[in-house]
Amino acid sequence: MNFGSRELWENLLNIKRKMVENIKNPKFFDISFVPDEIYIRKELEEVATNLAEYFVTGVPNNIIVYGHQGSGKTTSILNLLETVKQSENGKMDYAYINAGKNATTSTLLRNLLGDFTTGYGTEDMFKKFLKHYQELKINGIERYVVIIDEADSLKDSEIYKFISRQTDINMVILTRNMQWVSDLEGDIKSSLLPIFVHFPTYEIAEIKTILEMRAKEGLYEYNEGFLNLLNTRLYRDITVISGSAYAVCS
Fold this sequence. Notes:
250 residues, 5-stranded parallel beta sheet, alpha/beta, single chain
C-alpha cells in the first residue's frame, strides 16, 4: 500500500471509529427495534379507537392496515398493543406473526403456538389453537389480538375464516400490497367485516421528527445539519421505494 493509499485508509478508519464512538445505543438504529416512545401518527388513532371499542364490548373490530414499506405500520401497531398490554394488568395479550416467513395457515398456527410437531394437518392445528385460546381465557386473558404482518404473502385464507368465525379474537392485518387489498375475496370480507386504515408515506417533516427521537436516544451528540442531510436522503429513498411498490402493484 503506497503512502497515499495508506493515508486515505487511515483517515477513513478514523472517521468510522469516531462515528461508532458516538453511538450510545445501537438498537435505536435497528429497523426491527420497537422503542418505548414512537412518533404517533394520526392514522394510529383510528386503529386505537377501534381496538378500544373491542376492549369494552368484546366484539372484534378486525382491521386491515395498508401502506407502503417504511410507513410505520408494524412499529406503530406493536408499540400500541404493548402499551395496552402493560396498562391492562394481565387482562389482554397479543401475538405477532409474519406471513412472509409463514406462508400457509398451518405454519402460521404452528408458530403462534410454538408447536412444530410434525404429522398434524390444518384442522388439527385449528383444534390446538382453540384449546390454547381457551386456556388463555381461563388464565384471565379477556381480550386477545392477533397481528398478521405481510398478509399478502399468505397462500390461503383459512386462518381469517377460522379466527373470525370460531373465536372473539381481534385481528390486525398488515400489508404493503395495495392490489391485495383491492382483490380481497368476498367471503373473506364477509367473514372479517374489516375496517380499512391507510398509512400514507411519511412527510419529510415527520421523518425528521422520527430521526430526532432516535438520535436523542441512540447518539451522544448530533447536529441539525446532520439530521437535515439524513432526513433528505431517507425521504428520497422512501419515495423511490413507494413509487416502485406502487408500480409493481398497479
